Amino acid sequence: MADFEPTIIAFVCNWCTYTAADLAGTSRLGYPANVRLIRVMCTGMVDPKYVIKAFLEGADAVLVSGCHPGDCHYINGNYKARRRIKLLKEILPQFGFGDERLRLTWIGASDGIQFAETIRDMVTQIKSLGPNEAKGTMVI
Amino acid sequence: MKTAKINVKDGDLLATLREFFRSILQLDDISAILVPQHLPMKNVVMPTLVTDPEQLNGANPLAPVFPMNAGKIVSRLTRKPTGGKVAVVLRPCEIRAFIELVKLKQGRIEEVVLVGIDCLGAYKNVDYAQMIEKEETEFTSRFYRNVLSGKEMAEQGFDLNPACKACEHPIPSGADILIGLFGVDTNKNLLVQARTPKGEDLYRNLDLSNAEEPPERAAVVEALIAERTAYRDKMFAETTEVTNSVEKLNIYLANCINCYNCRVACPVCYCKECVFVTDVFNHEPIQYLRWANRKGVIKMPTDTVFYHITRLAHMSTACVGCGQCSNACPNNIPVMELFRTVSFRTQKAFEYEPGRSVEDDPPLSVFREDELSDVVGIG
């Protein structure tokens, strides 16, 4: 398991977490290359299907990250995202996609340091958890 | 709540119910009645919309079968105002499905009077077709006598639908007018209850004499629900055991052929066009080869597990557990068992009971600023 490099799919909102990732980059903060960022306009547009598909395709973890409560560019998209993540956190663990593999965080545009830390922490967690077993199945 | 008894002549519940429906249909403000009826052209029971009181002779709401969840039919009937009231005779799960559809803006509750009957359960559609030979009415009479006297319901090797055996809602609590059978001496009378102001309006015009609910009814119902709940919890445990990993879920759904019958039969799956039949899933042929190349082998058709988990995300909070999904599966996948097991968790998470009231907002349609702090963060 020592050489297991997890793949983390991160849906990040354009206005906050993507900007934070950009800030981390321009500030030359290092973070593991395990994360694949997908920029969305708002966490409120992250359809539960996207998360389900990521897991079924073998993602070891999924991160959805957007603006802090009250800061959503579209007023309340992040509150809607929170309900959807709650829903997925009830459904997916029943099929072996553990609760720790799906994360929701609020990372504001100026939180470059926090973004890099979040990714580092997640990678450490998922490494100790091991790979997503969907990777080895013949079902797409 | 107003309660009355109506006399049952010669122990014939069906004749009594037909007479009762006739009296409802003859009321001035009722323009039609929707009721399951034994069809004259074929030995089956289907929902019928009746305006002529003479056309109720085949009405049979106690037949142990429901080929579809009629909540869907009521939503079609009430999509727009018609200017008249329709009385609809439904099972409790059909009422609950309709209430969900109303909240999803797929029907209107203003122009219906919900007439609910204590539900005795049903057999699977295919089993039922094999069980009845000629006399459908006779079969129904034997069935309700057996259930109400507490006899074993397995007959000719067929048992009741697992959805019905696991159903903790045998009483149509959301009905405007309730017709009670459990804990009632059904050889002599039936219970009629007006449970809402709308029900009371109808009740007043029906010339019924007030009576008390039989004192033993509450205990009988409680015992029945306890029995159903025990069956349900056992079903949950067994289903969890066989689906609690991706590998096991793949096995559980291995013979799914993407026919989407379960979605068509589902009363609360209301999208006009499901995403799974759109171009999103009309993959480029090369995509299949890419997948196969990556894994060495892929099972066809693709997107089966994806479909079921997505459907769970879409409708599990609204699932009323009617079991029509399992009824519709051509490959006998226990769809209801899986969906109810998951729905139980999602409904509990949002403290939501589908079909309880039109006042409860569907959980994914609302949010509060101050809630769910436990799902945020990386632990």
Structure explained in plain terms:
The complex is a heterodimer of chains A (140) and B (379). By secondary structure, chain A is an alpha/beta fold. Helix content of chain A is 37%, strand content 16%. In chain A, β1 (8-13), α1 and β2 form a beta-alpha-beta unit. Helices cover 39% and strands 11% of the residues of chain B. Chain B has a 7-stranded mixed beta sheet, with helices on both faces. The chains are: A alpha/beta (140), B alpha/beta (379). Chains A and B meet through α2, α3, β4 and α4 of A and α9, α12 and α14 of B.
Task: Please give the structural blueprint.
The complex is a heterodimer of chains A (140) and B (379).
Chain A: E1 8-13, H1 17-26, E2 35-40, H2 48-56, E3 61-66, H3 77-91, E4 102-106, H4 112-129
Parallel strand pairs in A: 1-2, 1-3, 3-4
Helix pairs in contact in A: 1-4
Chain B: E1 2-7, H1 13-25, E2 30-38, E3 45-50, H2 71-77, E4 85-90, H3 92-103, E5 112-117, H4 125-131, H5 136-148, H6 162-165, E6 177-180, E7 189-194, H7 197-204, H8 217-243, H9 246-252, H10 261-265, H11 285-295, H12 304-315, H13 324-328, H14 335-349
Parallel strand pairs in B: 2-4, 4-5, 5-6
Antiparallel strand pairs in B: 1-7, 2-3, 6-7
Helix pairs in contact in B: 2-3, 8-14
- Please identify the structural class of chain A as seen in this structure: alpha/beta
Order of helices and strands of chain A: EHEHEHEH
Proportion in helices of chain A = 25-40%
Query: How many domains is the backbone of chain B divided into?
Result: 2
Largest interface: A-B, 41 and 46 residues
The low-pLDDT segments of chain B are none
**Overall average pLDDT of chain A:** 95
Number of strands of chain A: 4
Structure classification of chain B: alpha/beta
Shape of chain A: globular
Largest sheet of chain A: 4 strands, parallel
